[in-house]
Amino acid sequence: MDKINDRILQALSRDGRISNLDLAEKVGLSPSACLRRVQDLERRGVIVGYRAVLNRAAMGTGFTAYVAVGLNSHTKASQEAFERAMAAAPEVVECHNITGAIEYILRVEVADLAAYKSFHTDVLGTLAHVNAITSYVVMGSPKDERA
């Protein structure tokens, strides 16, 4: 990685649809050199995809909560069962296995509080290995740079 690749990645992170011509101009390269670098970054797995930034409220899923989940059993089977359940839950847009007092942090996006209560009760509340659930409701996101 060098400074030019860093600038390419920053520009693509802000606007994944930028044309190669505009990107080359922004980072100070010829279009062909810029394209070679982008293709190399893709080939090496530095760039793994391009995404649209979505307005969740316009899609009807404007209620977001981060959920800390503790398991009552720390076995591989318990973790795998929990992870399978979260992979199958459309409300869960992120699931991270973490260190600390609890095992998982989830990002849950649903329509409203009633939909979240349903997820909390009917999905998390039915999993045998879950013993602790703490919800953190997002009231605003002054900085969110996820794609």
Description of the molecule:
The two termini are 22 Å apart. The chain folds into two domains: 3-43, Arc Repressor Mutant, subunit A (Orthogonal Bundle); 56-137, Alpha-Beta Plaits (2-Layer Sandwich), CATH 3.30.70. Helix 1 packs across helix 2 (20-27) and helix 2 crosses helix 3 (31-43). The protein is built from six helices and four strands. The model has no long low-confidence stretch (mean pLDDT 95). It has helices at 3-14, 20-27, 31-43, 56-59, 76-88, 113-122, and strands at residues 63-71, 92-97, 104-110, 130-137. By secondary structure, it is an alpha+beta fold. A four-stranded antiparallel sheet has the order 2-3-1-4.
Could you give a quick summary of the protein structure above?
The protein is of the alpha+beta class and 147 residues long.
